[in-house]
């Protein structure tokens, strides 16, 4: 400045003066400014010169000079730049006169944000470099502000303001997100400027599969859902890949809005495998794998019917099945479940995983039938049945012998089991049936049986018939015999027990039934001189053993079968008895231990057709006429004891049996009591009183006994004597024994006092008691009349 002033005064003492206004200039880069050069005095030229000394012509680039009037010239600097700075000179000339002035032009840079973008994005965790490029001259000082306060790097180590003015945040967090202000100051000018920018912190996605393993079933039209949940900032987009191919929404796949759920439609086995879900955003991407397991229900893929021939070594049934997991195969038949490797009636079951074979060894015709193959795995099962056909030669069964008689048709049945079905032919004596001259033979062929119906016409129709069954595999024949049935043999009458109005007949079944079962028995009987009465008894099960009859009089039994009548058994003629009083019981007497007691026993004889009511016992010492009081003994007893008798005395005992018809003759016995023992002298019953009279009495008795003995002997041997006389005159009866002899010979007389229709009953063996329906006057029951006997009713 001082120099310029000096120059001005030295070069232009008074002639002309030049002045530049403003005297100096500062121009911000890019701005424009002008300077006015004023001259005092008359001048011809006013010129401006650049700092480099170059005269500025009318208009150079960014520089312009214009002469506004005689004394002023204007220099305009457009869009100043750093190069524009320097000393500009204005020179005024008029001839020899010349004057000049200079002006120093300074160019400066004001605060300019060259790069301070907003928003600026970073990834969480990274070291963020927040850009704020600002220039000025002189260079600015920069401070950063966030949430209204200045960031002080000294206080938070994560922050650092770099030499270039950038703000560095180490390990930027989501919480660091927000508005940041970059402020620049130039002290020299007091200039200040700022820029606010948005800092965005992006977060790398995270992704998590809801299930790492998904199970699905193939081929049933089902869908599988795979799902991954993603997180991050900005919200990530989820995509899916399978075998490195990105899956697109379509027929096979569908995705939800954010892609997090993938639905695989109509799952097939080929869909099995790993699927990848990928979450992607600005910060990056993350992926996760999900496995899809596809299970396949078992399905039997091969199974065929088989045919085997009986006695083949083996037959193998094969079953193939697919499925995932590999199915296990099992076999069963209608009656049996096979287990692997077992030996069952020789069949062996051998199974393999996907193919299983059931081996049946030593084929029998019974193996034919259905077999079931069952394939099963963890998700299901499939089963199918297969039919094993076994071909076998005919097997003949049936009852060999059949019975019939002339004109009665009978069937020979030839039961044939064969596969394939056998054809059956019948032969008789080597010739095929039916032959031309047989009209009495019919053949009924059914699927499993052939009936040969024969109506015998003569003897030659009986005999052997040959049934021959034939199929592809062979033939079998069997003889059937047609036997002429005979009439049953006569039933053998075992026992006949005649009673007053009935008889019990016991007979054996006929020895020979003639080949056909006995159907019924016929019983015939008659009263002398009358017609035969007859009755038939069917032989049904209930009466099989009841071949016992009660009937009246003469009778016979015959057995009949079907239409054949058996011959009558020999006629048995029996007569029933009159009902009468019982026969006299047979007596026996013993001296009892006491010596003066007697024990009397008797044996029941014929009861006269009626039950014995009781026995009447009476006794007396032989030498006295009076009888002791009668003792009544129940009919079931067959003995009695007589006590307190006189010592050494002969006693006579009578026992009479009584039924409703009356009393029997007495059974008689005589016995002497023992002598009084001498060891007991003075006994009340002693024989001390036995005087001469007693001895005489004894002698009389002995004599009498001798007499009776002789008489009895006479009576039995010669039918004479006193007793005979008494018996004939008093009782009018034959001697004992005749009656029972009569019974044995069945010659008892017929009585007419009963109804003519005899009562005929069938009874079981154990009831032998005489018929109780005989009309009898009812007896007053007393202690000696057993009710049980009467109340027992016969069973029909
Ligand atoms: C899928 O199947 C496997 C094998 O059967 C089984 O272990 C697993 O638990 C199943 N997973 C699901 C999610 O059902
Ligand atoms: C197997 O045999 C059965 C019974 O004979 C029959 O119904 C079925 O059709 C047969 N199956 C095949 C595949 O031949
Ligand atoms: C023999 O068998 C055939 C066929 O079942 C039948 O029609 C006929 O009546 C039988 N004949 C006799 C006597 O049973
Ligand atoms: C059938 O007739 C022939 C000749 O006429 C005879 O030889 C044969 O015995 C007869 N057969 C029968 C079963 O009658
Ligand atoms: C049955 O007849 C056939 C043919 O005549 C013969 O081969 C077979 O031996 C006969 N069978 C019997 C058991 O007699």
Whole-number mean pLDDT? 78
Work out the helix count.
5
Secondary-structure arrangement, i.e. CATH architecture of the largest domain: Sandwich
Task: Describe the global form.
Answer: elongated
Percent helix: under 10%
Q: Assign the CATH class of the largest domain.
A: Mainly Beta
Distance between the termini: 175 Å
* CATH homologous group name of the largest domain: Immunoglobulins
Kindly give the count of domains. 7
Q: Could you tell me the radius of gyration in angstroms?
A: 77 Å
Write down the CATH topology of the largest domain.
Answer: Immunoglobulin-like
Which runs of at least 5 residues are low in confidence (pLDDT < 50)? 1-10, 541-555, 567-571, 680-689, 724-796
Ligands, deduplicated: 2-acetamido-2-deoxy-beta-D-glucopyranose
β-sheet strand percentage: over 45%
Structural class: mainly beta
Biggest sheet statistics: 8 strands, mixed
Total number of strands: 59
């Amino acid at each position: 400045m001082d120099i310029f002033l000096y120059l001005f005064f030295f070069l232009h003492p008074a002639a002309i003066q030049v002045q530049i206004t403003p005297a100096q200039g500062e121009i911000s880069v890019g701005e424009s400014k002008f300077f006015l050069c004023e001259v005092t005095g008359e001048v011809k030229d006013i010129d401006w010169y650049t700092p480099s000394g170059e005269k500025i012509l009318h208009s150079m680039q960014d520089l312009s000079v214009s002469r506004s009037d005689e004394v002023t010239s204007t220099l305009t600097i457009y869009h100043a730049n750093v190069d524009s700075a320097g000393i500009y000179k204005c020179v005024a000339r008029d001839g020899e006169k010349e004057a000049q002035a200079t002006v120093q032009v300074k160019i400066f840079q004001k605060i300019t944000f060259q790069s301070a973008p907003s928003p600026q994005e970073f990834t969480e965790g990274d070291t963020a470099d927040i850009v704020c490029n600002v220039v000025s001259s002189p260079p600015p000082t920069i401070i950063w502000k966030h949430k209204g306060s200045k960031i002080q790097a000294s206080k938070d180590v994560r922050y650092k303001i770099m030499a270039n003015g950038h703000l560095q945040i180490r390990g930027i967090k989501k919480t660091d997100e927000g508005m940041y202000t970059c402020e620049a100051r130039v002290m020299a000018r007091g200039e200040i400027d700022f820029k606010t920018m948005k800092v965005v912190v992006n977060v790398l996605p995270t992704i998590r599969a809801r299930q790492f393993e998904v199970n699905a079933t193939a081929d049933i039209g089902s869908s599988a859902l795979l799902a991954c949940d993603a997180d991050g900032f900005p919200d990530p987009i989820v995509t899916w890949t399978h075998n490195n191919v990105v899956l697109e929404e379509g027929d096979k796949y569908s995705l939800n809005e954010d892609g997090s759920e993938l639905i695989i439609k109509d799952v097939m086995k080929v869909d099995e495998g790993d699927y990848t879900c990928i979450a992607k955003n600005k910060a990056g991407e993350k992926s996760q794998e999900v496995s899809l397991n596809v299970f396949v229900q078992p399905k039997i893929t091969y199974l065929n019917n088989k045919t085997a021939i009986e006695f083949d070594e083996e037959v193998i049934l094969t079953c193939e099945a697919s499925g995932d997991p590999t199915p296990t195969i099992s076999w069963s038949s209608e009656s049996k479940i096979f287990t692997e490797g077992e030996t069952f009636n020789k069949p062996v079951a051998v199974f393999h995983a996907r193919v299983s074979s059931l081996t049946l060894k030593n084929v029998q015709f019974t193996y034919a039938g259905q077999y079931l193959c069952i394939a099963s795995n963890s998700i299901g099962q499939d089963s199918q049945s297969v039919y094993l056909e076994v071909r076998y030669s005919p097997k003949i069964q049936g009852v060999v012998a059949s019975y019939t008689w002339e004109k009665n048709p009978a069937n020979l049945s030839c039961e044939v089991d064969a596969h394939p079905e056998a054809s059956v032919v019948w032969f008789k004596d080597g010739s095929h049936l039916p032959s031309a001259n047989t009209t009495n033979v019919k053949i009924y062929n059914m699927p499993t049986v052939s009936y040969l119906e024969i109506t015998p016409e003569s003897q030659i129709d009986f005999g052997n018939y040959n049934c021959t069954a034939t199929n592809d595999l062979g033939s079998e024949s069997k003889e059937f015999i047609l036997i002429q049935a005979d009439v049953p043999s006569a039933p053998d009458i075992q026992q006949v027990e005649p009673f007053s109005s009935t008889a019990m007949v016991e007979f054996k079944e006929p020895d020979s039934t003639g080949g056909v079962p006995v159907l019924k028995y016929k019983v015939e009987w008659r009263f002398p001189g009358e017609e035969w009465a007859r009755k038939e008894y069917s032989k049904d099960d209930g009466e099989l053993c009841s071949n016992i009859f009660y009937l009246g009089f003469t009778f016979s039994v015959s057995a009949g079968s079907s239409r054949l009548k058996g011959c009558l058994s020999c006629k048995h003629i029996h007569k029933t008895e009159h009902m009468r009083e019982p026969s006299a019981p047979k007596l026996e007497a013993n001296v009892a231990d006491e010596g003066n007691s007697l024990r009397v026993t008797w044996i029941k004889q014929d009861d006269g057709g009626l039950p014995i009511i009781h026995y009447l016992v009476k006794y007396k010492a032989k030498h006295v006429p009076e009888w002791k009081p009668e003792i009544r003994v129940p009919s079931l007893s067959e003995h009695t004891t007589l006590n307190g008798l006189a010592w050494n005395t002969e006693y006579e005992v009578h026992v009479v049996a009584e039924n409703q018809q009356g009393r029997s003759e007495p059974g008689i016995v005589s016995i002497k009591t023992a002598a009084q023992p001498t060891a007991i002298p003075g006994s009340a019953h002693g024989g001390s009183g036995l005087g001469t009279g007693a001895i005489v009495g004894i002698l009389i008795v002995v004599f009498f006994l001798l007499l009776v003995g002789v008489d009895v002997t006479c009576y039995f041997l010669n039918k004479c004597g006193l007793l005979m006389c008494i018996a004939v005159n008093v009782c009018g009866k034959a001697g004992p024994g005749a009656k029972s002899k009569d019974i044995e010979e069945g010659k008892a007389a017929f009585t007419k006092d009963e109804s003519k229709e005899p009562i005929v009953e069938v009874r079981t063996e154990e009831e032998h008691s005489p018929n109780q329906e005989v009309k009898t006057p009812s007896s007053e029951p007393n202690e000696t009349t057993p009710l049980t006997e009467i109340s027992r009713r016969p069973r029909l």
